[in-house]
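One chain given next:
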Amino acid sequence: MGSPFNIIFYANDSAKAAAVAAQCFQLVDSLNAIFSDYLPNSELSQLSANAGNTTPVTVSPAMLDILLRSKEAYKKSNGAFDITIGPLIKLWRQARKNNTFPDDSTVQKIVLLTGFNNVHIDTNTKTVLLTQQGMQLDLGGIAKGYTAQQVVDFLTQNGITQALVDAGGDIATSGAPPSAKGWTIGINVPETEEDLLSKKIMLHNMAVATSGDVYQYMEHNGKKYSHITDPRTGYGVTSQRNVTVIAPDGATADWLATACSILPISEAKTLATNSLLGK
């Protein structure tokens, strides 16, 4: 998924630890082969390639699960989080690469290719139909957190209950390290790459994700456009903001960090509060 992946855990048996670590990375590779939009043969890429066809596509259990979670996130965020944003992500990636800002007519044309109402999920047949030709799904705002949580859950199932999994900054944890109250996690100072806030997070059996524009953005006419794109307008958000969300699981922390980067602060706080309370 285009990010480094790190796993830390404690075990009493080094041989078991090595074997379980290898299994963890096999799990990561298998999920990457499902969710990645960088791989042309991934399940996600193949699903997008069938957009506009009339025959539903049978999907894997992991894909079905993450699509249902994404649908729920779309509804809760009133469209601020939308995995059908793929064509816009592609447009802005190319714009940043070429340092060429697209005109508004081009952006609005691409916006017409998005919309979760064009994703039909049948849980009975485990099939998905993308009704709009040219649609592309992008799981960049949820897949890393989802994968980190899957690895933590796998470790727990194998008797390893003190673990931290870091998927490109999306972090999921189980129990605290030995003789510690939790995992100490630093958050970068807004608009900096290396500096950390003086106050650290102490976390266990929870997940945390941070979204910001320090690494990827584009400047145009004196305005800074984040790589975090508002699916409702087609443009990157211009309110420079670091958003850190702590949640019970990695997928929830991941998508909330993205959605709360897009929404006005008052709406973001309401969304986060309601989501974490199960509303």
Notes: Residues 5-276 form a domain with the T-fold fold (CATH 3.10.520.10). The radius of gyration is 19 Å. Residues 1 and 136 are 16 Å apart (CA to CA). Residues 14-35 form the longest helix (22 residues).
